[in-house]
Automatic annotation (TrEMBL):
Enoyl reductase (ER) domain location: 4-350
Co-factor requirement: Zn(2+)
Listed PROSITE patterns: ADH_ZINC
InterPro entries: ADH-like_C (IPR013149), ADH-like_N (IPR013154), ADH_Zn_CS (IPR002328), ER (IPR020843), GroES-like_sf (IPR011032), NAD(P)-bd_dom_sf (IPR036291), Zn_alcohol_dh (IPR050129)
Keywords: Metal-binding, Oxidoreductase, Zinc
One Pfam family of this chain: ADH_N
Bilayer-crossing regions: none
Organism field: Mycolicibacterium mageritense
SMART domains in alphabetical order: PKS_ER
Domain of life (superkingdom): Bacteria
Protein name as catalogued: Alcohol dehydrogenase
Gene3D superfamilies reported in the protein's UniProt record: Medium-chain alcohol dehydrogenases, catalytic domain
Stated family: Belongs to the zinc-containing alcohol dehydrogenase family.
Length: 353
């Protein structure tokens, strides 16, 4: 099969033939029809993943945001068959640990070894292996195309789980989104707007903010993070009910917290970079005296996709609008390179292999 291979970190990927994967007894082989290019891919490729996070050993194939068609299933798989249209959550589970049995497969106790494109070769290729298929794979409705479905597998589901389940956004609330023009940020904007919130989009790019307006933001600002927080507090008459850091930088996280009204909820969706050492200082005394909540979302379990897919089929959500453009395998390196300076808008999807 053809794959885009990391031969050397931070150097252009090499598109070449590699051996087809073998199917595990508990898993499946999926023919990849589309795969999103995520900032996590950039972090792994550039060696800039958060401190203590995974590192890749070359040669390696990235790709964890995919949708496709089941090619083969293992002997232990009961619910899937060749020809099924599927997607796969960014963080799968083994279905057997205590956390999985409680319904939280996306934070499985053994999940770090199960992520395609992170812990083993992924979907920047014609085929990819998925583990524990019965516990994780999600059927795609015929109405949902593969490119839109590929945008769901990481950033969109994290935004949905974060906005709906974790932050409990309600109609009429103010929701600020820092880093609103990236894939995670635009997903959060669209989901929060669909939940009935008044969304304030914060980004440094006018073009990205224009995209956020198209997806439902009612106010935008290019102010630097400290000034943006003050602007949001004034605009909302005391602060946002929910504020989202969709990037994971120190100044965006801190500004997000400072944007909140008393008893507001901060939602962390973005990872830190290696330079932060896995830690960001937060205004803890302010959080204490205002009784702020600090929440996070790390993907979403496959069995929780139902409400999101129902909203998509009803036209309440449209992940197609989060996709900025599509590329072929031989264009992936340029996309990864542009992510160093946050050069991509929305989700870029590989659809030509």
């Amino acid at each position: 099969m053809r794959a885009a291979v990391i031969e050397e970190l931070a150097r252009p990927l090499v598109v070449r033939d590699v051996p087809d994967p073998s199917c595990p007894a508990d898993g499946a082989i999926v023919r990849v029809m589309a795969n999103g290019i995520c900032r996590t891919d950039w972090a792994l490729w550039s060696g800039n993943f958060w401190a203590g996070g995974p590192r890749v050993t070359t040669p390696f194939v990235l790709g964890h945001e995919f949708a496709g068609v089941v090619e083969e299933v293992g002997s232990e798989v009961r619910w899937w068959h060749a020809g099924d249209r599927v997607t796969f959550p960014m963080n799968p589970g083994d279905g057997d640990c205590a956390t999985c049995r409680a319904g939280h497969q996306h934070v499985c106790e053994h999940g770090a070894t199960l992520v395609p494109g992170v812990s083993y070769w992924g979907a920047f290729a014609e085929y990819v292996v998925v583990r524990f298929a019965d516990a994780n794979m999600v059927a795609l409705p015929e109405s949902l195309g593969f490119v839109a479905a590929a945008s769901l597998g990481c950033r969109y589901i994290a935004a949905f789980h974060g906005i709906v389940d974790q932050a409990r956004v309600r109609p009429g609330e103010w929701v600020a989104v820092y880093g609103a023009g990236g894939g995670m940020g635009l997903s959060a904007v669209q989901v929060a707007a669909a939940a009935g919130a008044n969304v304030i989009a914060v980004d440094i790019s006018d073009d990205k903010l224009a995209a956020a307006r198209r997806l439902g933001a009612v106010h935008t600002t290019t102010a630097a993070a400290p000034e943006a927080a003050a602007e949001i507090v004034e605009l909302t008459g005391g602060g946002a009910h929910v504020s989202v850091d969709a990037i994971g930088l120190a100044h965006t996280c801190q500004a997000s917290v400072r944007s909140l009204r008393t008893r507001g909820r901060h939602l962390q969706l973005g990872h830190t970079v290696a330079a932060d050492g896995g830690q960001i200082a937060v205004p803890i005394d302010l959080m204490l005296i205002k009784e702020l909540e600090f929440l996070s979302a790390f993907g979403m379990a496959g069995h929780q996709f139902g409400p999101m897919l129902a909203m998509i089929e009803a036209g309440r959500l449209n992940p197609d609008e989060v996709v900025s453009h599509t590329v072929g395998l031989d264009e992936v390196s340029s996309v990864l390179g542009s992510m160093e300076s946050f050069g991509t808008a929305g989700v870029v999807v590989i659809d030509r292999f």
